[in-house]
């Protein structure tokens, strides 16, 4: 990053009284006590830090799969009756929302002739509906077979990052949010997608902005995240399948009340009445 030119001459020594008055004041990346400069602490890692990302995967898995073992979910598939057809894999790819189609297409591009490739025409037909036409009765079993292939596992990881994780982290950083806020964005994107309707991630963020501003716009981080979580709860309650808001109320809201904006472990939370702990 380029920096504007600045005077690089050494600062004059501060008197004891001046040093005391200057405590906590950042001056060109450091604060001074007497003659000694102490560097400002490094920024905490964002959600894309490997350890933070692993935490995020486990948090979402606790809500999506009632398990912290997110890697066991590559083979998961069922119709949960939410109008989105089959829900499957580590992030709940859905046959009715297009992200499952994109995933299976990526897998076919990387591994032509794989066990799921023959379902691509059916996935195109059922996109936007809850239909199983052309998928039943063998699709769930073939999905589980494909999940034993590391190429399919990697495809799930890559589509999760491309569609949900990376956009959430990027938007969160642009808004000046730390790891907790970036996670709140990620979890919202996973559940609601990024469409144009009021209950999409974009609509939720717009609703929050009516009452609070993110740090990048001069607002307080905690106040803004409370507004975002309020908007998220409103969006969830618009749909019966998502009306249980515990993944916000007894998880993300708990971390926010604790002031854990960097999403540091240990973490304790509940989802759908089940308790979880990360040390």
From TrEMBL:
Broad class of the protein's primary localization:
secreted
Provide this UniProt record's keywords sorted from A to Z: Glycosidase, Hydrolase, Secreted
Lineage of origin: Bacteria, Bacillati, Actinomycetota, Actinomycetes, Kitasatosporales
Top enzyme class, one word, equals hydrolase
Localization of this protein: Secreted
What is this protein identified as? Chitosanase
Matching CDD domains, A to Z?
Answer: chitosanase_GH46 (cd00978)
| Role noted for this protein | Aids in the defense against invading fungal pathogens by degrading their cell wall chitosan.
Is RNA-binding tagged as a keyword? no
Q: Which family does it belong to?
A: Belongs to the glycosyl hydrolase 46 family.
Q: Which reaction does it catalyse?
A: Endohydrolysis of beta-(1->4)-linkages between D-glucosamine residues in a partly acetylated chitosan
The Enzyme Commission number assigned here is: 3.2.1.132
Q: Which organism is it from?
A: Streptomyces pyxinicus
């Amino acid at each position: 990053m380029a920096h504007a030119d600045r005077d690089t001459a050494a600062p004059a020594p501060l008197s004891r009284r001046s040093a005391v008055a200057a405590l906590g004041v950042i001056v060109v990346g450091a604060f001074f006590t007497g003659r000694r400069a102490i560097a400002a602490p490094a920024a905490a890692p964002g959600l894309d830090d490997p350890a933070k990302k692993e935490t995020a995967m486990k948090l979402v898995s606790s809500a999506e799969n009632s398990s912290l073992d997110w890697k066991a979910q590559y083979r998961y598939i069922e119709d949960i009756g939410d109008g989105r057809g089959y829900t499957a894999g580590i992030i709940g790819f859905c046959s009715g929302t297009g992200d499952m189609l994109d995933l299976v297409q990526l897998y076919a591009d990387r591994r032509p002739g794989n066990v799921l490739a023959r379902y691509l025409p059916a996935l195109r037909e059922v996109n936007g509906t809850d239909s199983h036409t052309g998928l039943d009765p063998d699709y769930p079993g073939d999905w589980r077979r494909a999940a034993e292939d590391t190429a399919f596992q990697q495809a799930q990881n890559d589509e999760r990052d491309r569609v949900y994780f990376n956009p959430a982290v990027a938007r969160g950083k642009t808004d000046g949010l730390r790891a907790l806020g970036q996670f709140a964005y990620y979890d919202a994107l996973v559940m609601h997608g990024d469409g144009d309707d009021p209950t999409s991630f974009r609509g939720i963020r717009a609703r929050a902005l009516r009452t609070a501003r993110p740090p990048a716009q001069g607002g307080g981080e905690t106040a803004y995240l409370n507004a975002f979580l309020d908007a998220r709860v409103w969006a969830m309650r618009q749909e019966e399948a998502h009306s249980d808001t515990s993944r916000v109320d007894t998880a993300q809201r708990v971390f926010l009340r604790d002031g854990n904006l960097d999403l540091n472990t240990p973490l304790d939370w509940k989802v759908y009445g089940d308790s979880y702990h990360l040390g």
